[in-house]
Structure formats: structure tokens, C-alpha cells
Amino acid sequence: MLVSCLVCGKPTTTTHMGMDVCRACTVFYQRHRGARDRLQCFSECGDRPCIDRQKGVFACRKCRLDRFEAVMRAGEEPAHQSVDGSAGEAFGRMMQQLIFRREGELSLRGIFLNNNDTIEENYEIIPCTYRCMNEGTRILVAGLFDFASAVFPDFQKLPSDDKWLLIRNYQQIFHCIDGELRALQRFGQESFFTFGSYTTFLSGEFAEKYFIDCPDQSNLATAANTLRECIDENVPAVQKQIYQIDPSEEEFLAMIGLALWSVENVEPDDQLLAIASRNRNQILAELTAHYGRTISNEQGTARLGVVLCLLQEFRRVDLNLKSEYEIYRILNVFDDDTFMYRLQAHRAPEVS
């Protein structure tokens, strides 16, 4: 099977160290990983470019080593920890997951932020492409395993197959909830931009650019039109609803948690079904108690209904995207090895 090396981008028929990286990049890493302190980035000492992205050639050894290590971090399954389930700590875990995604994606683009730029999110949001989203989804999935295990003790105890069942079902709707809220904050209500991955955006204007690095470009124009229609159908409607509801931090976390434990679209066994039901009920009880402390029980009941309607809107978008991915597969702009398609089709992904 021919894949693209995640480090240099060149085609390779073999993978190494459990990742889609070619033999040349693997040998390079093994030779130079102990010499990091002696390597210097070309962009820091002159005008010579570090990377020829069109040819997949690294002139700079430091940047090649940095990219290899970023790919390794993106593919690792994070360590699991138990934490208290309070909203403040859950939000802290959420922020760690978002930072993991941001730094992982930027590292794959050859961007390494200093502390001030990290805090201020001072980096360029670029148009999303097939490869950006595919790599970003790998990073997202790794972060979601860590987040779910840290916030929900029940998730830690699940068998590996059940964890994958939940995360495959969860990753797209998580991205929708997080991405649309961030898009409103970053781009404003009238932009109709959305995030394709954590650090890239999608819009109808750049639909053709999205497929520029897809496996087969013979149906690019049809695929681009399909993507434009998808954006027009989904983004304005969901962003309008978010803007009107303006969910609080607690409501945002409740939607994130309820989405994880929503198993309507999968086939869980009785034990997983009971665990999911218990966690959903607990989240709803905590949100109801929060409303009782901050507004009133009557107003809280009404507000809860509004939040659940917004979550249902995200589910609608999630289902639309699943159908959209099937169209892309028919058009061959996605193939059977496209990571995000394998997740949507609930096929076992190869990430380790």
C-alpha cells in the first residue's frame, strides 16, 4: 500500500516505528536524535529556506528532526490519570487537549511558538486541505483518549474496543462543537468560516484548495462543489443558533460530555449502554444543579431544553458529514486508507 510519509511527504510503501514515515526519515531520526543541541535551524541563521514543501526536501536537519518528533507525539496514546470531575478541572483538561492539538498541528507545519505566542494564539490560520484535516484528526483522536480518561473514570475502565467505539463516534461531533464555537470567536458571525482542523479553516471560497493534496483529483470540481454545498447548508445555521444561545463554559462542557456518552449511532453491549446512561444522567444532574445555584429551577429547565436543542443541531451536522464523506469516497477524493473516513465508517484505524 502506497502512503505519504508524514515527515517529508514522499510516497513510501512501508511504515516504520508504527507510523507512516519512510525509511529515509526513520534512519535520519535514529542518527540525529542525540545531536539536537548541536543542530541549528537555517531560518535562524540566514535566508535559506528550511523545507521545500513541494519536493518534500529538508535542507535543515533541525526542522526535519522536529517534524519527526511531532509526528511521534501525535501518534502516541497519552498516559491516563484520574481527576475530580468538577467543571473547573474538566475545563483545565479540555484546555490541555486543545493545546495538544494546536501544538501538534503547528509542529507538523514547522511552526514552534514561544510562550507569549502560545498564550495569545498568535499564529496564522491557513486554508484547510485534505492532508491537514487527515493529520489533524489523528492528533485530535490521541488527545480525546487522554481527555476522556482524565475526566471520566468510567472511560478508563472500559475495554480497548469500547474506548475506540466511543471515540470513533465522538471525534467528529467534538470537532463540530469546539470548532464552530471557536470559529464564531475568531472570525465573527458573518464570515461563515469554520475550522477544518484546529489551526486551519474551511470556506466555500477555498473549497477546491481543500482537495489539492487528496489521493485522486480526477473529480476535484465535483468534490469542491459538494463541499461548498455542505458548508452553505450547515455552517450558517449552526453558527446562528450558537450565537443566539451563547452557551456558557458549563454548558459547553456539558455538551462535550453528553456527546461522548451518546451511543445512539453505534451498537453498544448492555454494559456499555448502562455506563453511558449513568454518565449522561450525572452530567444532566450537575448542569441542573448549576442552574439551580445560578438562575432558578424554572429558568434552568427552559435553558436546559435550549442547550439540548443545540446539541441536537450538532448531531445533525455530524450525520451530514458522515454522508458527505461517503460521497467523497465515491468520487475517490477520499480512499479506504483516509484516516478520517475510516473513523466515520467505523473501521478499525491504524494509528500505532
TrEMBL record:
GO molecular-function terms, A-Z: DNA-binding transcription factor activity; sequence-specific DNA binding; zinc ion binding
GO cellular component, one term: nucleus
Pfam families: Hormone_recep, zf-C4
Source taxon at top rank: Eukaryota
Name the UniProt record assigns to this protein: Nuclear receptor
Organism whose genome encodes this protein: Pristionchus pacificus (Parasitic nematode worm)
